[in-house]
Queue: 2 jobs
Job 1
Amino acid sequence: MSTAALFDAARARLAAAPREALGELVVPRRILGVARAPRVERRGEAWHLGVLLLTDDAVLATGEIVRAREEARRGYTAESQRRRAELAAAARRGGFAEGETVHLGWRMLQPAVVDAGSESGPLAVVGGVPSVRWSSAGGLMTLEAYLADRVALLLDPPRGA
């Protein structure tokens, strides 16, 4: 089965499943030399399937994930914590609801390139079978099995998830 056909089948199964927001960080131009706070603008929505994001017409590689929240002064032990808090506040400034999940830094993937035998992000063909690298250090798994597992988890999440 082609990569595109696998994603089309997943979309059909996910029709009623919840989606998560896609956003893009925007740094506004200065006005009269005064910097304005960056914000995250909404760019659509997608089903979150592990390392993949599936929209109605595209496949994306997952980037950073934040939950929108009001800006608050805090002390941080790590610069990475400060950056994530700034992204969460930028999402809130951009109009996302408090606590809403927002995907940032996602990248467009090319299923047709994978079907032609090349790689596109975490997608690749191994022995003629479309596959996905499910983590940066993880091995490859067939795309069909990966999508079946991730779609099942999204449709029927474990208790407490």
Job 2
Amino acid sequence: MSALTKLIAVEAKLFLREPVSLFFVFALPIGLMLVFGLPQRGASGDTPGQHGEQTFLPSLALALTIGMLALFTLPMALGIYRERRILRRLATTPVPPGFLLVAQVVVNLGMGVLGAVVTAIAVRFLLDQPAPANVPGFLLAFVLGVACLFAVGLLIAALAPSARAAQSIGPALFFPLLFLAGTWLPRDQMPAILARIGDYSPLGATVDTIGAAWAGSGPAVPQLLVLAVTAVLCSVLATRFFRWE
């Protein structure tokens, strides 16, 4: 077993030992869908507006899973490792410190994919809704949403001076993004400029593109491009400013 594989295995065990992280990935998205989706189970979906779309709750639940991992779990874990000088100690061993960064991303990505699968199954059998109709479009939207949000999380980890700061910056960014995605107030009821910003925000674009593909349509190309550009830009900045100690 290679050093990277061992690191990934260790990080996966540590992740599974954290009940809060598991709650974010599995329980919270499914609970959200059950609370808001069961009263509408079997409804025709004729309610106008963003919240009336059948695919809004499932796509929001998936975006919530990705966003929690990217903006809460990932920056906090890397901040703790830097604060405790784990990265610095790794630099004195044959194992490159970058391996730990790769292991963190792989574990969180794997948990995000697993959470998405569980959410999709829950949508199908608990809410009696069909599986994603446009599978290639769904996969493309999901991958770009993950890349975008994880890149933002890595940028937070790169800029945060401490684990406590990372714990504060992540939620401070996450909840405004959640609002812009239309969670509490549908975007069709927002002022035009605010709704436009929400359309191209990381969570808003992720929710829209996943929802469109789930319904069988093609994800909007401008939103996919924004996700891709944000992923590349934040990744470059995270690489530029990341500190190992």
